[in-house]
Amino acid sequence: MSVLDIKGVTKQFGTVRAVDSFALTVGDGELVCLLGPSGSGKSTLLRMIGGFETPSSGSITIDGEEVIHLPPERRPTGMVFQSHALWTHMNVFKNIAFGLKLRRIPVAEVKRRVDEVLELVGLTGYGNRQTHQLSGGQQQRVALARSLVLEPKILLLDEPFASLDQHLRERLREEVRDIQQRLKITTLFVTHGQDEALSMADRIVVLHDGRMEQVAAPDMLYREPETPFVAGFIGTMNLIEGNVNGGTFSRPGFSHKLPAGDGPAIFAVRPEALAITPATGAGAARVHRVTDYGTHGLVDLELKDGLRLKSMVPEARDWKAGQPVDIAPRAFAAYRDDAVLYRSSAAQ
Fold first, then answer.
1. Would the pLDDT of 33 be above 90?
2. How far are the Cα atoms of 29, 67, 104, 213, 341 from residue 4, in angstroms, in the given order?
């Protein structure tokens, strides 16, 4: 059983608070993604867990043992960096075996474990290759193998696929998820890619300005974001600022019933939940652009005041630029003061 427990961790760089009172428990065998924009504190947090940064305050325990005082090489963690960080003067076998030799593991045991981990990451027979002879994806597999061969309790992945092309990223993240589930290793994965987080994670932590905005399973995070930031950051979301008056949310060209108290609000609706129909008159909006993705279409709309919205449609060829349309949300949420004001799963 390997449980990572982070309590009240803060990291201060001069006047900048990169991580602010962060708390999270990662369960045994769980894969949790830290997701956020650049500067949100996700990599700093991972480096503190791995021992490459020291928290200004707080506690980090693994299986109940405090690790803040331990250097990286003595922590039961394995870290994979975006840059691979392979030694170019060593072949693949020596790169992977390096940490084992530092621990004075017998030669026969080193060979057995390196061979096993090479098979695990799909690089059987590559031990004598020089690292510069490998593709980017193969180099990242070696970096993963180098961490896994040490049999860490906690695996830390810091945007490991960021430098790879999209097709290779998609393939590698599936492979890493399969390996993680096979080994049942507790894993913390840093990414700024929503697709990676949504496809790999058991839970996603959304960070913003060093603070946790929301933590939830991927489906809950997408369907029920708790703040306007999460709503706008996860997937595509139409965010409409306006006012509630007498049970109706409105702004020029758009209004919808909203059973909430009067005042400012942010109306949030996903493109797939924003229905459009041809208007007989001027319409609430006009089609600005239509993009055909084959499986579906995405219609860019423009309200009377210039605000742009997006609607997902089954057939792109049914819509033309300049066409007047009426719009009707099938499901939506509303926010006020960075909190959910109202949520609906059906058109009101």
1. yes
2. 10, 10, 27, 20, 34
